[in-house]
Task: inverse folding
């Protein structure tokens, strides 16, 4: 019998350690939280995607009284980016969450469905997406979805 151990690389830093492009992307994700439609959870999530053409596209969670009909900030943002700019890859994605009058101290991490969509976007453009997860205290930087979604389902060729 063999064992496979999977490791993930997560860089932990604070806002002052980021370069100016990263700071802008985080600021845009934070701003986007304020336009979230989250009347049920009151948990407002914002995301900002930097595209290869330099555009920054933002989005946020959009809830619905029929709960499964809502969508997370990450997917709203990536789908909008891909819909508007289908010819440009996504280089990085920043995510921030705001609730009870404050941004969270620790970052939140994308849900499973959003991870799968991030993976698809990486595969579509053959470009790893740098993920910046904002927390007031710590910021996590992940260099590609593989570190968040190991052993992913990424191909139907085997079927
Ligand atoms: N949510 C996101 O938008 N992104 C995440 O990474 C986690 C959760 C949303 C879904 C729902 O509208 C609210 O946050 C509470 O789960």
Result:
């Amino acid at each position: 019998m063999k064992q496979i151990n999977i490791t993930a690389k997560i860089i932990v830093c604070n806002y002052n350690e980021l370069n100016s492009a990263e700071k802008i992307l985080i600021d845009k994700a934070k701003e986007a939280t304020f336009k979230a439609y989250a009347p049920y959870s009151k948990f407002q999530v914002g995301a900002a995607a930097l595209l290869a053409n330099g555009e920054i596209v933002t989005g946020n969670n959009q809830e619905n009284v029929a709960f499964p009909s809502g969508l997370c900030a990450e997917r709203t943002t990536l789908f909008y980016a891909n819909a508007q700019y289908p010819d440009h890859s996504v280089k990085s994605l920043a995510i921030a969450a705001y609730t009870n009058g404050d941004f969270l101290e620790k970052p939140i991490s994308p849900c499973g469905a959003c991870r799968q969509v991030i993976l698809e976007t990486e595969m579509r453009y053959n470009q790893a997406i740098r993920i910046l997860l904002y927390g007031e205290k710590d910021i996590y930087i992940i260099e590609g979805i593989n570190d968040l979604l190991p052993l992913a389902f990424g191909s139907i060729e085997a079927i």
